Amino acid sequence: MDVKEEEVEANAKLPTLEKISYSFTDMAGNLLYVSMSSYILYFYTDVFDIPVSAAGMIILIACIVDAVSAIFWGSIVDHTHTKWGQSRPYFLWLAVPFALSTFLAFTAPNLHGTAKLLYAGITYVLAAGVIYTGIQTTISAILPNLTLNPNERIGANSYRMVGSLIGSFVTSTFTLPLVAFFGKGNDKHGFMITIALFGIAAIFLLITAFKNMRERVPVSQKSLPFKQSLKATVGNVPWYLLVISFATFWIAQADRNSFSTYYAKYNLGNAELAAVFNGLQVLGIISSISIPFIVKITNKTATMLIGLGIGAVGQAMMALVGGNFPLVILSWSIGVLGSALAMSMPFAMLADTVDFGEWKSGIRAPGFLTAVGSAFCIQLGSGFGSFIPSKILDISGCVANKTQSAQASSAISFCFIWLPVIIYAIVAGIMFFYLKYEKMEPQIKDDLLARAETRK
Fold first, then answer.
1. β partners of residue 199
2. Per-residue pLDDT tens digits for 213-267
3. Distance in angstroms (rounded) separating the CA atoms of residues 35 and 40
4. Per UniProt, which keywords does this protein have (predicted)?
5. CA distance 9 to 25
6. Dist CA 99 CA 302 (whole Å)
7. Are 29 and 132 in contact (CB under 8 A)?
8. Is a pLDDT exceeding 90 seen at residue 149?
9. How far, in Å, CA of 312 to CA of 16, rounded?
């Protein structure tokens, strides 16, 4: 293949089947990961009978360990060279371990004391951390290698986000009803069977994605040493901004997901409303589909800021409507539309920071940059998103399966409603600085293609 053909290939328009298959990766990931992020704290405290403070600490420690593992996963991807590409083979290799480890995390053996805490910690690290981090790393790392065409990247990422939200919708809407159906009063058995079914579906989706996807952008056939990967971060200011803002954003996202159950059960008096809250996450598909159009009218940075603003408005509205169910649903739905819009953008923008890193340092490190920018941020943010609220609940005197005091109810409301608003404002302040670097992207792409021609 000559230089011109390589340039055309690298800028290829992605087939619809490939975009759909890309959506399967995050659909599979969320079938299992959202089960953990939404229900593991509830499972630990109300099913496995672990104190809330201990459960929060387990999740924090596990997520910190997992966040560190993301760095190593990024380096592993940059060292990977197979006939299938750098990232794609991991969809095949990790499918079964991912499903099995998540199943074990939601299994509650007859253990006590330290043994119970160790089991919970180890299985959570394996499922939500080491293995899922590998899945998440490769989902993000493959995007910059699918094509250099920025519009195609945005389009593919929109498909991915739709898949992510469908997976989240299925998990959030049907987990508790399925637990009740299969468990028949025994939530331990109900969780085991439900997660096993989700795991089988995830395996099928990941293997299908492996079969139908293709990496087109040429990468060095030499393994990239870890020190070289680090050099791709030197002077990569847009990457710094995305890492800080995305990690902070995920504190709010994990907080909203995990505390919907508490808010529904203790403040609204109906635990099953959590399934309604989580099921409404599917409305985020509207946001994901609209992203390419909004980006064309504005830009990527403005699209994320719009999402943060809408999300903050929806959250604030929930504080004003009290227990009025229709207005609670309306407020939550607005928040979902905004958070989905804001959450989608960093995944697409990370691909641009890979290009910036190569333009700045001459080193292309998609594995490392996207691993830290996505999996690391998600794990670190999710850890603090569970730990911070759990400490607030512990201080407020919240006791599982009991009528809560006024102080505990106020703490639940603050964690579920106002903490995300505060975090959205912080993230928006950080992202204002990204616009300068987004304006440089056309020139960066042209320079990279010119360098490729010179090397030939």
1. none
2. 998 876 655 666 777 778 888 899 999 999 999 999 999 988 887 777 788 888 8
3. 7
4. Membrane, Sugar transport, Transmembrane, Transmembrane helix, Transport
5. 23
6. 37
7. yes
8. no
9. 34
Instruction: State whether residue 224 is helix, strand or coil.
Output: coil
Structure-token match 């042209």, residue found: 446
Coil, helix or strand at residue 255: helix
End-to-end CA distance of the chain: 11
Contact 238, 71 (CB under 8 A): no
Tens-place pLDDT, residues 161-203: 899 889 988 887 888 889 999 999 889 999 999 999 999 999 9
CB half-sphere exposure, 131, CA atoms < 13 A: 26
**Exposure of 363 in the CB half-sphere (CA atoms within 13 A):** 21
The two structure tokens encoding residue 228 = 């070289």
What's the sign of the alpha-carbon dihedral 90, 368, 306, 299?
negative
Report, in this order, helix, strand and coil percent for the chain, each rounded to 5.
Answer: 85, 0, 15
**Helix (H/G/I), strand (E/B), else coil: 2:** coil
Backbone dihedral angles phi then psi of residue 107, each to the nearest 5 degrees: -100, 135
Residue type, position 142, single letter: I
Q: How far is residue 162 from each of residues 27, 65, 284, measured CA to CA in Å?
A: 8, 29, 8
**Spatial contact of 345 and 433, defined as CB atoms under 8 Å apart:** no
Instruction: Cite the residue boundaries of each domain of the chain with CATH code 1.20.1250.20.
Output: 14-216, 224-455
Instruction: Report helix, strand or coil for 85.
Output: strand
Looking at the DSSP bridge assignments, the partners of residue 85 are: 82
Do 365 and 78 contact (CB within 8 A), yes or no?
Answer: yes
Confidence check: pLDDT of 17 > 90: yes
CATH: 3.40.1170.60, 2.60.120.280, 1.20.1250.20, 3.30.505.50. Which one for 224-455?
1.20.1250.20
Say how many residues make up the chain: 456
Mean pLDDT of the chain: 86
Radius of gyration of the chain (CA): 21
Q: What percent of the chain has pLDDT over 70?
A: 94
Residue 363 DSSP label: -
- 438/454 Cα distance (integer angstroms): 25
Supply 190's token pair: 């109900």
Fold classification of 14-216 is Growth Hormone; Chain: A; (1.20.1250)
- Give the pLDDT score at 242: 95
